[in-house]
Amino acid sequence: MATDRAVTGGLPDRLRQRIRLTGPMTVADYMLAALADPVxxxxxxxxxxxxxxxxxxxxxxxxxFGELIGLWCAHCWQAMGRPDAVHLVELGPGRGTLMAxxxxxxxxxPAFLAALDIHLVEISPALRAVQxxxxxxxxxxxxxxxxxxxxxxxxxxxxxxxxxxxDALPMHQFVWTERGWRERLxxxxxxxxxxxxxxxxxxxxxxxxxxxxxxxxGAVAEVSPATLSFAALIGRRVASQxxxxxxVDYGAGESGLGDSLQALRRHRRHAVLDQPGQAxxxxxxxxxxxxxxxxxxxxxxxxxxxxGLFLTRLGxxxxxxxxxxxxxxxxxxxxxxxxxxxxxxxxxxxxFKALAIAHPALATPAGFAGGGDDVRTDR
Length: 379
Known about the structure:
The chain has 13 helices and 16 strands.
């Protein structure tokens, strides 16, 4: 469980000092420091996942999520021509739960499991330790390598999974004024942090989609250069070396306006500028610009689809029924509750989206072609 730090020292004081020396900081710089500061960053200080932490992700809700993604990867591997070796990569693996469930599902395809070369991209030493323990316990005998960034991955065909990774990437915010877009910055007010606006236009405004020009006064727009960079890197990699990537996250299918920056602490909304490093900071993913960046790098994109539709097409209903056959009455209720939480529109089913980035020659991946269940869950 995450533990509190003294909020009068550490990261907050260093951010105040930085602002005093260099002036107001961008929202992107604030997010990067709050989440990834080597000493006091939110993700560097422990395990934030689960009921004892600050938030729960889909793999922690139900094993069905990771199992279906495992089936999706196996389907892609078959469409790739069943290569003897393929890199299985996860970005931001959390506790390692998704990877463990994925590998359990992969056991239904021994040749697929034998072809996997597993790589996890994780910046947090604390979370790496949790992931290593999870895989040692739940996937014994499986060897994996950890990396601090995608650039360290070996060459070759790749199947990549990123669940709730892009929402934590730093982004810039802009407010529409009578002088055009002005970037939102963060300054100090005594010991507190507060938002302000840049006096003049800043270069990052050039990344905003042209369709967002001239909205109502006070409208907020967001752009994440880190998202564009990762999407281009993934797109270029699968286009040149083969494979596919599955991105699952929350956000809009089309670019739009709105302030989506939020903080979560102990499963409750938290003031974004209060106690940096103590709460998770996230923003909605713009799937339209993410897909465009991947396509411009040479890849083909499928989706985005609502998570509920995607999981339904992969066969979550049948998987739930199979699990229920050997479950107690209480477990059956938990299985059904988890299924509904993952797919119902008023829960995670609509806000969360799935996007596939693939080599142009690869057949449409499972879940994105339409129709009924796209993969078998009885193997």
